[in-house]
Amino acid sequence: MRRTRFITWFFLALSLGFFLLRDFRVALEMPLLNWAAAQFRADQEAEFLNKPPPQKFPWVERRFTLERYVSPEELRRRAEAGDARLKAFAALHLPREEMGQDILRFADQAIAADPELTWVIFSLYSVDDPFAGPGASAGQVWARVERLEAFDPDNAVPHLLRARLLRAARGDDWPSPRDDDYVDALAAQAEWRQAMQAAYASPRYDPYDLRRFQLETAVFRQQGWDHPAVVWFTKLREPFRPLLFIREYGNFLTQKLGPEAEAAGRLDEALEHYWQAWLFGERMRGQAQAWMIEALVGEAIQGGAVERLVPALRQAGRRQGAAAVELAWTQLQENRRRRAHEISLAQTRSNWSALWVNVSAGCWALFLLFTLACNFYLYGKRWLRPQKQGRLYRTMMVAQNYAPVFLFVSGLVLYVSFLPYAQTFAHYMTLEEPLLDLEGLIRSALPVWDAPWFG
Q1: pLDDT tens digits, residue range 221-237?
Q2: Dihedral angle at the C-alpha atoms of 10, 16, 21, 22, nearest 10 degrees?
Q3: Distance of CA 299 to the CA centre of its chain
Q4: Mapping DSSP to helix (H, G, I), strand (E, B) and coil, where does residue 155 land?
């Protein structure tokens, strides 16, 4: 009996010792994270379908956001006394509506201290309408855009930002994409066309996702906020950049300027327009460093170009060039289908793995409750009615002896199952070489089934 009692307390101590392991504590939170992801996905679907939002449980989401560690007010206070990176981080993560002035001030201070952070301007202006925000000043907006263009002149993204802001500044006066003559109406937008032409002629397409991720991970580690679920959910809730207008200029080249040049007998000029659309789509598809949606937009631009480019090349007598473009397009489509199949298989495996981890977490919690219930019953029984020891008492005695063993085994299974996710997350958090698949991090860093993706 004494030996059995020793084994019982030994395994109970080992089981509770799992709490000393951070990865184990994170693994226990996975069922709650899956619930938060389901809430987020339901909000997305309701917004897309114009339905009323479902009932929310804000305390669940707050547990997996920065508010777990720091409130917006505290983040602002820390940024005031912090270095350039913390100021830039605050500019990216403070609430825009309540702290718009602070965001711009922190961004300007960060750039003044470290000009390499000038890319933050793109993250500030690439989603919302800066002309309608707090403290909006057209002069300051355009001054910041010019600073970004001077900072990275060979990148298409600053020029794309200028083009998008030109549209935003026009508001409802901008031609509607629903109009039949929309492509023709774009021809009258001289300043917009100039910005888009500069973007399509740029040799690089870099939306600064890698720089932003490296900045955020550095601050997360420095401040002790690098909880995997917080990092995961922060990236998941990152505002989505509008990309449709980028394709619109590709359509303008292939449906307006190119055909008009062909009709006027200027075949070489038409080929330049088609080639420009094709090559920009290639750069956007090949240099995108984060989300699949950008690669898909680049592919769509190439798809519009190839329909005009191949016949024009044949008309110009460049049959080998036409064959090369057709082959490249065929391979691109095949690669996309293969990639989609691989992602589908990976998602299926991820879902099963996530289910296993979450069931393991649930089993450990149940065994812990059962172990505690046995001990409460037995010690309460011995204190209140020690003279009566029936069948239930004897059964609970046996359960008390062996429940910690099952508790330890379930905890070990949970820890070992979650360990690959923890190692993947640790790898990404310390990665220094270029990150080519940020969406892959979202898929593989935590066991969340059917997570909402960006692309």
Answers
A1: 999 998 988 888 888 78
A2: 170
A3: 20
A4: strand
